[in-house]
TrEMBL record:
One of its GO terms (molecular function) is oxidoreductase activity. Residues 14-172 form the Nitroreductase domain. It comes from the Bacteria. InterPro entries: Flavin_OxRdtase_Frp, Nitroreductase, Nitroreductase-like. The keyword DNA damage does not apply. This is Nitroreductase family protein. Keywords: Flavoprotein, FMN, NADP, Oxidoreductase. Belongs to the flavin oxidoreductase frp family. It comes from Bifidobacterium erythrocebi.
Amino acid sequence: MTELIHNATIDTLLERRSIRKFKDEELSPEIVATLETVAQHAPSSQFLNDWSAIRITDPDVKSQLARIGGQPYIAEAPLLYVFVLDEHRNAAIAQAKGVETGDDAFTLTSSYRYTQAQNDAVLALHAMETAAYSLGLGCVVLGSILNDAAALVDMLNLPEYTYPVLGLAIGKPDQEPALKPRMPRSMQFFDNEYPSSNERVLAGLDAFDDEVHQYYDLRNTERPVDAFSNQIAVVAVDDSVLSKSVVPLAERQGFRLDR
């Protein structure tokens, strides 16, 4: 195996793990300012700055998010954000410059802008997460808040041309989970083109299945985690995702994903 190069940044990223239990300690204003400023320095497609983040400080709102996500620890996070793809601000800027936002010439609501804004929000969240880990903090990314995205939109008063992307909980860790196994690089990194056969794509899967099956998640220390391929087989036929279609709510928020 090729030996890795190590420095403080690389080691922070290699040691990254989700933290779901935090110490009951507030984070300083300096930490909050640092994390938010780092997020603002993430890449942004065409410098549109087309994301925003809602800092959740109200205990009632935290509790509602925990109910939506089905994860009680969300309500206990000392610092909690919901990242949002945001073309509302840019639409307001364009409108102030005389652009008519109601006709077909207005393209900030197109599927391309939607996906690019979503990418920008994720990049900003990841920058914040990495900065938090570098400060000795712990984080967990919260896709679960999208279990009821419509309720989230209403709860956070998200205006037209916005859509929630992910949540991020941050605090001082009060647990030490084991590092989750990672797929062999050969299964995720390819040269010049995608492999032409599934045999090549799946080379290394058996060994990865064994490694995952030996991993014990702190959320259920009584039994090992299911093999990776078994997890995929279950998720592949999980019809609960059909009720979470993005399109109806995105259209309600003013996006035109058919364009």
